[in-house]
Write a structure and sequence with these properties.
Blueprint: H1 2-11, H2 14-50, H3 54-90, E1 94-102, E2 109-116, E3 123-130, E4 137-143, E5 149-152, E6 178-184, E7 190-196, E8 211-215, H4 229-232, E9 238-243, E10 245-246
Antiparallel strand pairs: 1-2, 1-9, 1-10, 2-3, 3-7, 4-6, 4-8, 6-7, 8-9
Helix pairs in contact: 1-2, 2-3
Length: 257
């Protein structure tokens, strides 16, 4: 217990706080069980003298079983959480990729790769596209769902698990799915690279299985005066989309594929 307290004070990690909580809950269950067992022992002794009903004693024994099962459940839950966290913490690099396909009426295609060295590292995001309008800027976002059954209309809003306003990926007040803009050259090829400290390939908020989209217009990063500036940066129609999936290795895909 003292070791857990010391580690929590040093790291302020929620993991150690959870372990302390589970330890105290388990100790509470055991303490209650001991009191009930002592009460049953006294009842049994009294039963010999006053012939208390067996039904009453049976109820007390069932209560003890419930308490002990609760303690066991708490311990197992804590152990499971610790194993999951350790597996995530000790996991090596993760790589993901999304192949972008054009929305109806557009010709934009491309690929987006995601690389994260470990749970605590920033995610490196690289994108290459073609058939964009030359020298333009195009909104670039991760959306909540990886569902393309209805094209770009079934992917949902920007991925925003913390209920933030739309903004720049460099600002704290922005969606996790806000990636900014992709810049096209004079031939219509788009390139994007960044290190993102919000996007993750690990844990509960992993973007794997979600989708990444390109919009027709520039994202105003929430700074415009349009009604949709604080939701999608007034970036216009969705012109290309792809589902983010885990990859076996990091692929340096060219724009011209």
């Amino acid at each position: 217990m003292l070791t857990l307290l010391s580690k929590f004070i040093q790291t302020k990690s929620d993991i150690y706080l959870e372990q302390i909580f589970n330890f105290l809950v388990t100790k509470f269950y055991i303490k209650i069980s001991q009191k009930i067992l002592l009460k049953i022992a006294r009842q049994i002794q009294t039963n010999k003298q006053t012939n208390l009903s067996k039904k009453h004693i049976l109820k007390s024994r069932m209560l003890v079983k419930s308490v002990l099962l609760g303690a066991a459940g708490t311990a197992l839950f804590s152990y499971s959480n610790q194993k999951t966290y350790k597996a995530e913490k000790n996991a090596g690099e993760r790589i993901a990729i999304a192949i972008l396909y054009p929305a109806p009426g557009y010709d934009v295609t491309g690929a987006v790769t995601f690389y994260q060295k470990d749970l605590h590292s920033k995610t490196q995001i690289t994108a290459r596209l073609k058939n964009l309008n030359p020298n333009g800027l195009f909104g670039f976002h991760i959306h909540e769902f990886g569902d393309l059954t209805n094209g770009t209309e079934s992917v949902g809003p920007h991925y925003n698990p913390f209920n933030k306003k739309h903004g720049s990926p460099r600002e704290d007040e922005s969606h996790m799915g806000d990636l900014g803009n992709i810049k096209a050259d004079d031939l219509g090829y788009g390139y994007y690279t960044s290190e993102n400290n919000k996007v993750t390939l690990f844990g509960e908020y992993s973007v794997v299985g979600r989708s990444v989209l390109v919009n027709k217009n520039e994202d105003d990063l929430g700074r415009g005066n349009h009604p949709d500036s604080h939701t999608n940066g007034h970036s216009g129609p969705r012109i290309a989309a792809g589902i983010i999936g885990l990859a076996y290795e990091l692929k340096n895909l060219p724009a011209r594929f």
